[in-house]
Amino acid sequence: MGSAVHSHRGRTGTGVLEAGPERVALLTDFGAGPYVGQMQLLLNGLAPDAPVVSLIADLPAFRADLSGYLLAGLARRMPGRTLYACVVDPGVGTDRDVLMMRCGEDWWLAPDNGLLVPLLRRHPEAEVFRVSWRPDWMSATFHGRDLFMPLAARLVNCDWPDCAPVAVEELVNGHWPADIWQVCYIDGFGNLILGVDADRLTPSARLKVGGQLLSHARTFAEVAPGDAFWYRDAFGLVELAVNQGRADERLGLGLGDTVALHAQDEG
């Protein structure tokens, strides 16, 4: 996520963006059903020139504490000037706040429940705002459609909403760290993604899962079928896998389970 020239009138009130996002990516825990489709359809009506893509719809349900650690990886190597609308929102319908963040060329929208905190830890230069603007009508239970999509449309249309800057320490769960040694996602192959930036580890690092030590491999083909290992995945995160097998079953791990760093060559 690089930098870009950007300005608007004021930081705390309505203004006009000189350059808004060019596209919108949806990141939700909604799964199958009508919800993502309704968000896409509404946004298409409000901002018909902006492509909208469902980037992921199976973030860990209700788990902002896990989902937030996937965001940086999911945005890795994606096109700049993207607005990421992130909706893992078990507090929908309460008085929880809504956040807007600018990080380099990109924009982010999310509930104030910790979802953006890991990203802010990795990008302390990012600007984050509490949004006070609300549309004329919202349902009590579907703010992904009724609040986040109108907000996304305003940004795409270069319309700065009413908001106020806020420090990360003032956010809900603002104490969360940049990385966690927990399983944050299990893909369809049974691979286990941890909330850890893989660049923090050397190839000599070994991870401890129960009584088993996992060594690093660059690709699946570097280990024998059935062997478990860890690798730097395509998102830049630490991932546990079994060549031609399921790591979740082989290692007995589920969402939120902890993995330990056993040893690492610091030289």
Characterization of the model:
Belongs to the SAM hydrolase / SAM-dependent halogenase family. This is SAM-dependent chlorinase/fluorinase. Keywords: S-adenosyl-L-methionine. Residues 24-157 form the S-adenosyl-l-methionine hydroxide adenosyltransferase N-terminal domain. It is a single chain. By secondary structure, this protein is α+β, with helices and mostly antiparallel strands. It has two domains: 15-170, Rossmann fold; 180-263, Beta Barrel (Elongation Factor Tu (Ef-tu), domain 3). It is 17% helix and 28% strand. The chain has helices spanning 35-46, 64-67, 71-74, 117-122, 143-156, 247-251, and strands at 15-16, 23-28, 52-56, 82-87, 98-103, 106-111, 127-131, 159-160, 163-165, 180-186, 192-197, 206-209, 212-214, 228-232, 237-242, 260-263. Strands 3-2-4-6-5-7-9 form a seven-stranded mixed sheet, covered by helices on one side. Strands 10-11-15-14 form a four-stranded antiparallel sheet. Helix 1 (35-46) runs parallel beside helix 5 (143-156). The radius of gyration is 19 Å and the shape is elongated.
In the sheet with the most strands, the strands line up as: 3-2-4-6-5-7-9
Give the C-level CATH assignment of the largest domain: Alpha Beta
Mean pLDDT: 93
Element string (H = helix, E = strand): EEHEHHEEEHEHEEEEEEEEHE
CATH topology of the largest domain, by name, is Rossmann fold
Radius of gyration: 19 Å
In angstroms, what separates the terminal alpha carbons? 30 Å
Shape, per Cα inertia axes = elongated
**Uncertain spans, ≥5 residues at pLDDT below 50?**
1-12
What is the correct CATH architecture of the largest domain? 3-Layer(aba) Sandwich
State the domain count. Answer: 2
Profile the largest sheet. 7 strands, mixed
